[in-house]
Amino acid sequence: MPVPFEALIPYGIIIAMFGITGTGLAIVKGIENGGKKPRFGLDQWDKQMMDRDRRLTGNLRGQTDTPVAPTGFELNNPWRLEKRIS
Predict the structure, then answer these.
(1) CA distances (Å), origin 9, targets 6, 15, 21
(2) Which of 53, 61, 60 is nearest to 36 (CA)?
(3) Whole-angstrom distance, CA of residue 56 vs CA of residue 50
(4) Overall number of domains in the chain
């Protein structure tokens, strides 16, 4: 018994929406990581170095090979001080 093609249209729409969503997610991940593959299994050292790279270059995945830090980096401290009660 044949199936009318009108019954398959919603399935095609659903499959197309999953494809569009997956492609959009892959594009956003690529833009977020600077075109590099996403990192996984990060430990504390990796997170600390990624934060340092972000403060140096402005990009979480960006790296620089200059031996001298840019001006203003000495004031860019990642440690936050707690506010004292006075």
Answers:
(1) 6, 10, 18
(2) 61
(3) 10
(4) 2
Looking at the domain assignment, is residue 33 inside a domain?
Answer: yes
Higher pLDDT, 82 or 67: 67
Q: Residues 14, 8: contact at Cβ < 8 Å?
A: no
User: DSSP secondary structure string, 10-56?
Assistant: HHHHHHHHHHHHHHHHHHHHHHHTTTSPPP-S--HHHHHHHHHHHHH
Same domain, yes or no, for 47 and 22?
no
Q: What is the pLDDT of residue 86?
A: 65
Tokens of 17: 């929406």
Here the tokens at position 3 are: 């199936």
* Average pLDDT of span 42-50: 90
Q: Which domain holds residue 54?
A: 40-77
